[in-house]
Specification:
about 300 residues; alpha+beta; two-stranded antiparallel ribbon; about 45% helix; about 10% strand
């Protein structure tokens, strides 16, 4: 059953009534209509998590897809469901088993939050994820955009998303200057995201934003033009040739965190990330491994075991 996020109220003809009057300046129903048509004809429909609207599966995929490519996520998603087919199974699993299934996917805080979130869903909501994104984002590891995506795909809740792909789409289509990571630009984009929400087909609209950004508005070349469908070409032409001066933030040099690796047989060797020890086991952080079932790798603040 379709619902509307509590941050907005239902308006005329089912359109969300905007809480902020400034957001009404960004209303453009032609954009959402064109995007939905394009997604239904040319968007992605065969991904494993698209075959079910079950909130647990949608949530699992959304967490795994954070800062991770689809091709890398698919095998992990499949293995997770084989071992933890329900949120009850995941909540009851030992932390070590969850971390073991996540090993190699990176950004390990996601795995710890995933496990804690599953426990809270079971304890607070009897295993049923809330349909209200405001309640959902109170759970570990779920932000505003992720909560909106989960509820849109699972329950048809009308709520706005704003991930990296969506920011690039908005910057390109509507000619928004400035780096989207800065607060003023991001706040402006949230207003626009709320104003553009359609009255229906929120799932297709949400997926369309993701697909359009991934396929045509890449971070490395946001103005690149490809063989667009008629609706995608219309979307890209809206702001004209001067659209999307997508500013880049200055990158900070990352400091390597010390890691250590030892074999359970007792032989130990330590190194800084990026360097190989004498034993031949290469760096944990680049995920290139020597075939050894006894290797245990520690990168603070948690311990993971590679089988």
């Amino acid at each position: 059953m379709k619902s509307t996020a509590s941050r907005s109220k239902a308006g005329p003809a089912g359109q969300p009534q905007l809480a902020n009057s400034h957001a009404s300046l960004y209303v453009d129903h032609s954009f959402s209509a064109a995007l939905i048509t394009w997604q239904k004809q040319h968007g992605r429909h065969g991904l494993p998590w698209q075959q079910s609207h079950e909130a647990y599966r949608v949530w699992l995929s959304e967490i795994m897809l954070q800062q991770t490519q689809v091709t890398a996520v698919i095998p992990y998603y499949t293995r997770f469901l084989e071992t933890f087919p329900t949120v009850f199974d995941l909540a009851a699993a030992p932390a070590g088993q969850v971390m073991e299934h996540w090993a190699g996917l990176g950004y390990y805080t996601r795995a710890r939050n995933l496990h804690q979130c599953a426990k809270q869903v079971v304890d607070k909501y009897q295993g049923k994820f809330p349909a209200d994104p405001v309640l959902l984002q109170e759970l570990p590891g779920i932000g505003r955009s992720t909560a909106a995506a989960i509820t849109a795909f699972s329950y048809g809740t009308v709520a706005a998303i704003l991930d990296g792909n969506v920011k690039r789409v908005f910057a390109r289509v509507f000619g928004i200057d400035g780096y989207p990571g800065t607060r003023p630009v991001e706040d402006n984009m949230w207003l626009r995201a709320q104003a553009l929400l359609p009255a229906q087909d929120i799932g297709a609209y949400t997926q369309g934003l993701m697909d359009l950004g991934l396929r045509y508005v890449r971070a490395a070349a946001p103005n690149a033009r490809y063989a667009l469908s008629s609706h995608a070409a219309w979307l890209m032409r809206k702001a004209g040739p001067q659209s999307c001066r997508y500013a880049n933030q200055k990158k900070r040099k990352k400091k390597n965190k010390p890691s250590c690796c030892w074999c359970r047989t007792g032989q130990k060797s330590c190194w800084s990330a990026g360097h190989s020890p004498a034993s031949g086991v290469v760096c944990y952080r680049c995920l290139s491994w020597r075939a050894c079932r006894n290797i245990v790798v520690k990168t603070m603040p948690f311990l993971s075991m590679r089988k």
